Amino acid sequence: MDLTKLIASLPSGTFLSDTEDCVRYGSDWTKTPGQAGAVALPRTTEEVAKILRYCFEHSISVIPSGGRTGLAGGAVAVNQELVLSLERMSKMQAVDIHGNTLRVQAGATTQQVHEHCESHGLLWPIDLASRGSCQIGGNLATNAGGVRVIRYGMARKWVVGLQAVTIEGEILELNNDLEKNNTGYDLIQLLIGSEGTLAVITEATLKLTRFPKHSLVMFFPFPDPGAILNLFAEARKGPFEILAFEFFSKICLDAVAKKLNRQSKLGNTAAYYALMEVELTEGSKDAVEEWLGQMLEKEIVMDGMLALSDSEKEQVWGLREGITESIQATAPVKKYDVSVPVRKIGTFLQATEELLKVGSYGFELYLFGHLGDGSPHLNLVKHPETSMEKFGTDAAAFEKVLFPLLKNNGGSISAEHGVGLLKKHWLEYSRTPAELRLFRAIKKSFDPRGLLNPGKVV
Ligand code: MLT
Ligand code: ZN
Predict the structure, then answer these.
(1) What was the pLDDT predicted at 213?
(2) Ligand 1 center to residue 105 CA distance, Å?
(3) Sign of the torsion formed by the C-alpha atoms of 261, 262, 264 and 265
C-alpha cells in the first residue's frame, strides 16, 4: 500500500510501521495470526475522515481497531491491511445531568467512562472483565454484552447519539442525542454490532442510569445446572433486582485457583457454582437475608456465602472474571459463546452434556457464563496428550452436533462476542438466506469496494 501522500498530509507520528507495532495492532485476544501493513493513530474525526477517503480513493483495506480484546477475531489484520486505531481519541465531555448522557470519543476505555460517571452517581451499565482495556468504539461496534445484561441489556440500549465516518470520508452525526426521533431507518442501531464493516465509530453519546447504590453478592455451590436453575427461578421472585446471575463449573474454578491464586471460601468440591449480584432497595438487606433463609429451608441451596463489603464482592467476582485468562493459560482453547432463549437454558445445558458423552473427544469442556441471559460459554480445552490436529477435527465434529442443537432451540452461534473472522462460516445456523442477502446488500451500500474490515461478518 502506498501511503506516502497521506503520511505527508497528516501530523508526524500519526503512522507506525515497525514490525513489532504492526503485529501488536494487527492481532487481538484470540491470538489469530495477524499483522498490519501500517498503523494509523489519528487524533481527530477529521483525520479519520481524511485517512478513510484516501483509502477509498486508493483501494486500501482498513481494519478499525479498539482495545483488541474481542474474542471473534474481528480486529485481526489477516492480509496486512492498514489498522486504524482510535486509541488517541479518548476525550470525554462533562456529564449532561439533564439528559443523563455522556459524550465520549471512541478510544475512551469502558473503565474510564465508569470512573467519569461515578461521582455523579451515574453509570454506563455495560461491564466486562476487559473493562480496563476495551474501548467504547469497540463496545459499540461489537454490541458488547458482559455481566450485567440480565439487568440492563446489551450496549445498543445505552446510546443516544453516534458519530461515524464512512469509507468515503463522510462524517455522519446520527440522532443528535435525541430521546425521541422517529424519522425513518435507525442508522445508529445498524452500525452498532456491525463490527467495523460499515463505518468507523468516532464518538458516541452514551445514555446513563443511576448507579446501584447498594448491592450484595451471593455465591453458592451446586451439584448440577438444574439445581442452579431452581435457584434462578426463585431469584426471579426475590425481594431485589438481579444485577448479574453467573455460573461456572468446578474445572473453571480450579483453573482460576491455579493461575491467579484465588481460592473460593466455599472450597472446590462442588460440580458447579453460581454467583448472583442483587441490587438492594433501602432497608431490604433484612428481606434478602430472610429470603436466603427460605432458600436453605426449602433446600434450594445447601450452602453459600454473602459478600457485603467491596473487598468481599471483589473476591467473589475475581473467581468469575479470572476464568478467561486462566483457561487461556492452560492449553489451546476453542471458544463457543452461544445463547438460547432463557427458558430453554436448562434443557440446552443437559443436551450439551449428552452430546459430550456420545463422542470420545480429545478436549475438556470448561463451562461458565451468563446463565441468567441464556448465554453459556462453552470452552473446549485441548487435553495434553491430544495432538493439535485431533483437537481441530474433534472440535469440528462437536460443532456438527452443537450447531444443529442450537438451531433447533432457536439459539445463536454468538451471544455477545460477535461474528468477526472466526464465526463467519457458522452464520447460516443463526441467520436465514434472506437475512444474509440483506446483510450483503447493506454492506455494499456502505462499503461498495469492500474495504472496511474485509472478510469479517459477511
Ligand atoms: C466472559 O463472560 O467472561 C467473557 O465473555 C469472556 C469469555 O467468554 O471468555
Ligand atoms: Zn461473556
Answers:
(1) 83
(2) 25
(3) positive
Length of the chain: 458
Ligand nearest to the CA of 373: 2
Nearest CA to ligand 1 atom 9: 324
* pLDDT at 368 > cutoff 90: yes
Q: What mean pLDDT is predicted for residues 396-400?
A: 95
Q: In this structure, how many other beta carbons lie within 10 angstroms of the beta carbon of residue 134? A: 24
Domain spans of the chain, in order of start? 4-85, 101-210, 215-324, 331-429
Q: Where are the alpha helices (DSSP H) in 238-370?
A: 250-260, 285-297, 310-321, 323-328, 345-358
Distance from residue 180's CA to the centre of ligand 1 (Å) = 34
Mutate to test the pocket of ligand 1, among 29, 31, 69, 71 (most ligand atoms within 8 A of CB): 71
What percentage of residues in the chain have a pLDDT greater than 90?
96
Cell numbers representing residue 211 in the block? 448507579
Residue 185 has pLDDT above 80, yes or no: yes
**How many Cβ atoms from other residues are within 10 Å of residue 234's Cβ?**
15
Whether the CB-CB separation of 403 and 429 falls below 8 Å is answered with yes
pLDDT score for 281: 79
Tens of pLDDT along 221-230? 999 999 999 9
Architecture of domain 101-210: 2-Layer Sandwich (3.30)
Same fold, 215-324 and 331-429: yes
Alpha-carbon span 28 to 24, nearest angstrom: 8
CA–CA separation, 249 vs 273, rounded Å?
6
Q: Which CATH class is domain 331-429?
A: alpha beta
Separation of alpha carbons 257 and 259, rounded Å? 6
Q: Which CATH number fits domain 4-85: 3.30.43.10, 3.10.150.10, 2.60.40.3200, 1.10.260.40?
A: 3.30.43.10
- From 406, 416, 375, 433, select the one nearest 193 (Cα to Cα): 416
Number of H helices, E strands in the chain: 15, 17
Residue among 259, 324, 325, 326 to mutate when testing ligand 1 (max atoms within 8 A of CB): 324
Q: By 3-state DSSP, what share of the chain in percent is helix, strand and coil, each rounded to 5?
A: 40, 20, 40
Domain formed by 215-324, architecture: 2-Layer Sandwich (3.30)
Amino acid letter for position 388: M
**How far is it, in rounded angstroms, from Cα 264 to Cα 248?**
12
What separation in Å is there between the alpha carbon of 129 and the centre of ligand 2? Answer: 9
Q: Which residues line ligand 1 (CB under 6 A)?
A: 71, 129, 324, 337, 369, 377
Tell me which amino acid residue 289 is.
Answer: E
Eight-state DSSP code of residue 198: S
